[in-house]
What we know:
With 301 residues, the chain is of the alpha/beta class.
Amino acid sequence: MAMPAPPKHYTVGLLQFQVSPSPEENTRKALDWFEKAAKQGAQVVCLPELYRSQYFCQKEDVDLFDLAEPIPNPSIEAFQKAAARLNAAVAVPVFERRAAGVYHNSLVMIDADGTLLGIYRKMHIPDDPAYYEKYYFAPGDLGFKNFDTQYGRVGTLICWDQWYPEGARLTALRGASILFYPTAIGWHPYEKEQYGAAQRDAWITVQRGHAIANGIYVGAVNRVGFEQPVPEQAGIEFWGSSFIADPQGVIIAEAKTDQEEVLLATVDLAHLETIRRNWPFMRDRRIDAYEDITRRFIDEG
Length: 301
Protein backbone atom coordinates (compact mmCIF):
# COMPACT_ATOMS: atom_id res chain seq x y z
CA MET A 1 0.00 0.00 0.00
CA ALA A 2 1.34 3.44 -0.93
CA MET A 3 2.42 5.68 1.92
CA PRO A 4 0.47 8.93 2.29
CA ALA A 5 2.20 12.03 0.92
CA PRO A 6 3.81 14.27 3.54
CA PRO A 7 1.90 17.44 4.42
CA LYS A 8 2.48 20.68 2.52
CA HIS A 9 3.42 22.49 5.70
CA TYR A 10 4.47 21.52 9.21
CA THR A 11 5.43 23.20 12.48
CA VAL A 12 8.96 23.05 13.83
CA GLY A 13 9.99 23.76 17.39
CA LEU A 14 13.36 24.76 18.84
CA LEU A 15 14.06 24.22 22.54
CA GLN A 16 16.32 26.91 24.02
CA PHE A 17 17.16 26.26 27.64
CA GLN A 18 19.86 26.34 30.30
CA VAL A 19 21.55 23.12 31.36
CA SER A 20 22.79 21.96 34.74
CA PRO A 21 25.78 19.79 35.75
CA SER A 22 23.44 16.74 36.01
CA PRO A 23 22.85 14.70 32.82
CA GLU A 24 19.79 13.03 34.33
CA GLU A 25 18.26 16.37 35.29
CA ASN A 26 18.96 17.75 31.81
CA THR A 27 17.30 14.75 30.17
CA ARG A 28 14.18 15.16 32.32
CA LYS A 29 14.10 18.88 31.54
CA ALA A 30 14.50 18.31 27.80
CA LEU A 31 11.71 15.73 27.82
CA ASP A 32 9.44 18.20 29.64
CA TRP A 33 10.25 20.91 27.10
CA PHE A 34 9.70 18.50 24.22
CA GLU A 35 6.23 17.76 25.57
CA LYS A 36 5.56 21.48 26.05
CA ALA A 37 6.54 22.18 22.42
CA ALA A 38 4.43 19.32 21.08
CA LYS A 39 1.40 20.51 23.03
CA GLN A 40 1.90 23.95 21.45
CA GLY A 41 1.76 22.36 18.01
CA ALA A 42 5.37 21.47 17.19
CA GLN A 43 5.60 18.45 14.90
CA VAL A 44 9.39 18.35 14.41
CA VAL A 45 11.54 19.49 17.34
CA CYS A 46 15.26 20.13 17.79
CA LEU A 47 17.29 20.29 21.03
CA PRO A 48 20.54 22.23 21.60
CA GLU A 49 23.93 20.61 20.99
CA LEU A 50 25.24 18.32 23.77
CA TYR A 51 22.16 19.14 25.83
CA ARG A 52 22.81 16.45 28.48
CA SER A 53 25.73 18.28 30.08
CA GLN A 54 27.24 21.67 30.56
CA TYR A 55 29.68 22.47 27.79
CA PHE A 56 32.56 20.31 28.98
CA CYS A 57 34.92 21.13 26.07
CA GLN A 58 36.11 24.23 27.96
CA LYS A 59 38.97 22.03 29.19
CA GLU A 60 40.76 18.81 28.24
CA ASP A 61 40.08 16.13 30.83
CA VAL A 62 40.23 12.41 30.10
CA ASP A 63 37.60 11.68 32.77
CA LEU A 64 34.98 13.65 30.83
CA PHE A 65 34.82 10.88 28.24
CA ASP A 66 32.65 9.16 30.86
CA LEU A 67 29.83 11.49 29.78
CA ALA A 68 29.64 9.72 26.40
CA GLU A 69 26.87 7.22 25.62
CA PRO A 70 26.46 4.50 23.01
CA ILE A 71 23.60 4.63 20.51
CA PRO A 72 20.99 3.54 21.43
CA ASN A 73 20.96 4.36 25.15
CA PRO A 74 18.34 4.98 27.87
CA SER A 75 18.03 8.73 27.24
CA ILE A 76 17.44 8.19 23.52
CA GLU A 77 14.94 5.45 24.29
CA ALA A 78 13.09 7.88 26.56
CA PHE A 79 12.80 10.31 23.64
CA GLN A 80 11.61 7.50 21.36
CA LYS A 81 8.78 6.75 23.78
CA ALA A 82 7.93 10.42 24.14
CA ALA A 83 7.94 10.96 20.36
CA ALA A 84 5.49 8.10 19.85
CA ARG A 85 3.24 9.37 22.65
CA LEU A 86 3.32 12.97 21.42
CA ASN A 87 3.24 12.12 17.70
CA ALA A 88 6.18 14.47 17.13
CA ALA A 89 9.61 13.89 15.59
CA VAL A 90 12.72 15.08 17.43
CA ALA A 91 16.43 15.65 16.77
CA VAL A 92 18.36 14.60 19.90
CA PRO A 93 22.06 15.53 20.17
CA VAL A 94 24.34 13.03 21.89
CA PHE A 95 27.97 12.69 22.96
CA GLU A 96 28.39 9.36 21.19
CA ARG A 97 30.64 6.58 22.45
CA ARG A 98 31.20 4.63 19.25
CA ALA A 99 33.97 2.42 20.65
CA ALA A 100 36.75 2.62 23.21
CA GLY A 101 38.70 5.72 22.24
CA VAL A 102 36.34 6.71 19.40
CA TYR A 103 33.81 9.42 20.25
CA HIS A 104 31.64 11.73 18.16
CA ASN A 105 29.53 14.85 18.58
CA SER A 106 26.35 13.40 17.09
CA LEU A 107 22.59 13.49 16.98
CA VAL A 108 19.88 10.95 16.36
CA MET A 109 16.72 11.70 14.43
CA ILE A 110 13.61 10.11 15.90
CA ASP A 111 10.37 10.00 13.93
CA ALA A 112 6.90 10.73 15.29
CA ASP A 113 6.21 7.02 15.84
CA GLY A 114 9.39 6.56 17.88
CA THR A 115 11.45 5.05 15.08
CA LEU A 116 15.14 5.92 15.17
CA LEU A 117 15.69 7.18 11.62
CA GLY A 118 19.46 7.47 11.80
CA ILE A 119 22.54 9.28 13.08
CA TYR A 120 24.38 12.41 12.00
CA ARG A 121 27.95 12.96 13.19
CA LYS A 122 29.33 16.49 13.28
CA MET A 123 31.63 16.92 10.30
CA HIS A 124 33.59 20.06 11.22
CA ILE A 125 35.32 19.98 14.60
CA PRO A 126 36.66 23.23 16.13
CA ASP A 127 39.68 23.81 18.32
CA ASP A 128 39.48 27.28 19.86
CA PRO A 129 40.13 28.61 23.37
CA ALA A 130 37.52 26.97 25.65
CA TYR A 131 36.12 25.03 22.64
CA TYR A 132 38.59 22.14 22.66
CA GLU A 133 36.44 19.76 20.66
CA LYS A 134 39.24 18.09 18.70
CA TYR A 135 40.36 16.51 21.96
CA TYR A 136 36.99 14.80 22.42
CA PHE A 137 35.45 14.21 19.00
CA ALA A 138 36.52 12.37 15.87
CA PRO A 139 35.21 14.04 12.68
CA GLY A 140 31.96 12.68 11.33
CA ASP A 141 32.21 9.94 8.73
CA LEU A 142 28.57 9.47 7.70
CA GLY A 143 28.44 12.42 5.32
CA PHE A 144 25.73 15.05 5.15
CA LYS A 145 22.33 13.64 6.01
CA ASN A 146 18.62 14.05 5.38
CA PHE A 147 15.91 12.27 7.36
CA ASP A 148 12.38 11.63 6.15
CA THR A 149 10.07 12.26 9.07
CA GLN A 150 6.31 11.78 8.81
CA TYR A 151 5.98 15.54 8.39
CA GLY A 152 8.82 16.39 6.05
CA ARG A 153 12.44 15.87 5.05
CA VAL A 154 14.90 17.56 7.40
CA GLY A 155 18.65 18.06 7.22
CA THR A 156 20.80 18.08 10.33
CA LEU A 157 24.15 19.76 10.94
CA ILE A 158 25.79 20.72 14.24
CA CYS A 159 27.23 24.04 15.50
CA TRP A 160 30.67 24.55 13.87
CA ASP A 161 29.16 23.09 10.67
CA GLN A 162 27.17 26.33 10.44
CA TRP A 163 30.18 28.29 9.16
CA TYR A 164 30.61 26.09 6.09
CA PRO A 165 28.51 26.77 2.96
CA GLU A 166 29.58 23.41 1.54
CA GLY A 167 27.86 21.50 4.35
CA ALA A 168 24.66 23.51 3.99
CA ARG A 169 24.67 23.05 0.21
CA LEU A 170 25.30 19.31 0.25
CA THR A 171 22.61 18.80 2.87
CA ALA A 172 20.12 20.96 0.97
CA LEU A 173 20.86 19.13 -2.29
CA ARG A 174 19.47 15.98 -0.70
CA GLY A 175 16.03 17.57 -0.61
CA ALA A 176 15.58 18.85 2.92
CA SER A 177 13.02 21.58 3.53
CA ILE A 178 14.78 22.76 6.71
CA LEU A 179 18.33 22.65 8.02
CA PHE A 180 18.63 22.24 11.79
CA TYR A 181 21.76 23.51 13.55
CA PRO A 182 21.82 22.42 17.21
CA THR A 183 24.43 24.67 18.78
CA ALA A 184 26.44 25.59 21.87
CA ILE A 185 27.93 29.03 21.20
CA GLY A 186 28.53 32.07 23.33
CA TRP A 187 30.80 34.85 24.48
CA HIS A 188 34.07 34.69 26.34
CA PRO A 189 33.37 37.27 29.08
CA TYR A 190 36.58 39.21 28.39
CA GLU A 191 35.66 39.55 24.68
CA LYS A 192 31.98 40.40 24.92
CA GLU A 193 32.22 44.17 25.28
CA GLN A 194 34.54 44.64 22.31
CA TYR A 195 33.57 41.81 19.97
CA GLY A 196 30.28 40.38 21.25
CA ALA A 197 27.86 42.18 18.96
CA ALA A 198 29.91 41.40 15.85
CA GLN A 199 30.32 37.73 16.82
CA ARG A 200 26.60 37.17 17.35
CA ASP A 201 25.72 39.09 14.20
CA ALA A 202 28.15 36.99 12.12
CA TRP A 203 26.60 33.80 13.50
CA ILE A 204 23.10 34.91 12.52
CA THR A 205 24.18 36.32 9.16
CA VAL A 206 26.02 33.27 7.90
CA GLN A 207 23.05 31.01 8.64
CA ARG A 208 20.59 33.41 7.04
CA GLY A 209 22.92 33.23 4.06
CA HIS A 210 22.57 29.43 3.96
CA ALA A 211 18.79 29.86 3.92
CA ILE A 212 18.97 32.33 1.03
CA ALA A 213 21.61 30.53 -1.06
CA ASN A 214 19.78 27.21 -0.79
CA GLY A 215 16.18 28.40 -0.80
CA ILE A 216 15.55 26.54 2.43
CA TYR A 217 14.35 27.07 6.00
CA VAL A 218 17.06 27.17 8.68
CA GLY A 219 16.58 26.54 12.41
CA ALA A 220 19.48 27.33 14.77
CA VAL A 221 18.96 26.33 18.41
CA ASN A 222 21.33 27.40 21.19
CA ARG A 223 21.52 27.09 24.96
CA VAL A 224 21.48 30.02 27.40
CA GLY A 225 23.19 30.81 30.66
CA PHE A 226 26.70 31.20 32.05
CA GLU A 227 28.76 28.02 32.46
CA GLN A 228 32.06 27.89 34.32
CA PRO A 229 32.88 24.20 34.87
CA VAL A 230 36.56 25.08 35.40
CA PRO A 231 36.81 27.60 38.29
CA GLU A 232 40.18 28.92 37.15
CA GLN A 233 38.83 29.70 33.67
CA ALA A 234 36.58 32.58 32.66
CA GLY A 235 33.66 30.42 31.50
CA ILE A 236 31.28 31.03 28.59
CA GLU A 237 28.08 33.08 28.46
CA PHE A 238 25.87 31.26 25.94
CA TRP A 239 23.98 33.84 23.92
CA GLY A 240 20.74 32.03 23.15
CA SER A 241 19.30 33.92 20.15
CA SER A 242 17.85 30.75 18.61
CA PHE A 243 16.04 31.58 15.40
CA ILE A 244 14.20 30.22 12.38
CA ALA A 245 14.74 31.82 8.97
CA ASP A 246 12.64 31.28 5.86
CA PRO A 247 14.04 30.62 2.34
CA GLN A 248 14.57 34.34 1.79
CA GLY A 249 16.57 34.61 5.01
CA VAL A 250 13.74 36.42 6.78
CA ILE A 251 13.82 35.63 10.51
CA ILE A 252 10.30 34.42 11.27
CA ALA A 253 10.93 33.47 14.91
CA GLU A 254 13.71 34.54 17.28
CA ALA A 255 14.47 33.91 20.94
CA LYS A 256 16.05 36.21 23.52
CA THR A 257 19.72 36.13 24.48
CA ASP A 258 19.05 35.15 28.08
CA GLN A 259 15.69 33.35 28.35
CA GLU A 260 14.54 29.75 28.12
CA GLU A 261 11.99 29.50 25.31
CA VAL A 262 10.10 27.24 22.94
CA LEU A 263 10.39 28.72 19.46
CA LEU A 264 7.78 27.73 16.85
CA ALA A 265 7.44 28.42 13.13
CA THR A 266 5.81 26.88 10.06
CA VAL A 267 7.76 25.26 7.24
CA ASP A 268 5.62 26.00 4.18
CA LEU A 269 6.62 23.96 1.13
CA ALA A 270 4.56 26.16 -1.20
CA HIS A 271 6.50 29.21 0.00
CA LEU A 272 9.78 27.33 -0.50
CA GLU A 273 8.70 26.44 -4.05
CA THR A 274 7.78 30.05 -4.82
CA ILE A 275 11.12 31.37 -3.60
CA ARG A 276 13.09 28.80 -5.59
CA ARG A 277 11.11 29.59 -8.76
CA ASN A 278 11.89 33.29 -8.42
CA TRP A 279 15.42 32.92 -7.09
CA PRO A 280 16.52 29.84 -9.11
CA PHE A 281 19.95 29.41 -7.56
CA MET A 282 19.71 25.62 -7.81
CA ARG A 283 18.97 25.85 -11.52
CA ASP A 284 21.88 28.16 -12.29
CA ARG A 285 24.61 26.30 -10.45
CA ARG A 286 27.64 25.63 -12.68
CA ILE A 287 28.28 22.08 -11.57
CA ASP A 288 30.71 21.66 -14.48
CA ALA A 289 33.03 24.30 -13.00
CA TYR A 290 33.26 23.40 -9.32
CA GLU A 291 35.89 20.63 -9.33
CA ASP A 292 38.40 22.78 -7.41
CA ILE A 293 36.08 23.00 -4.40
CA THR A 294 37.61 19.77 -3.09
CA ARG A 295 41.11 21.30 -2.92
CA ARG A 296 42.42 22.71 0.37
CA PHE A 297 43.66 25.89 -1.30
CA ILE A 298 44.30 26.94 -4.89
CA ASP A 299 47.90 28.03 -5.41
CA GLU A 300 48.20 29.99 -8.61
CA GLY A 301 51.58 31.66 -8.52
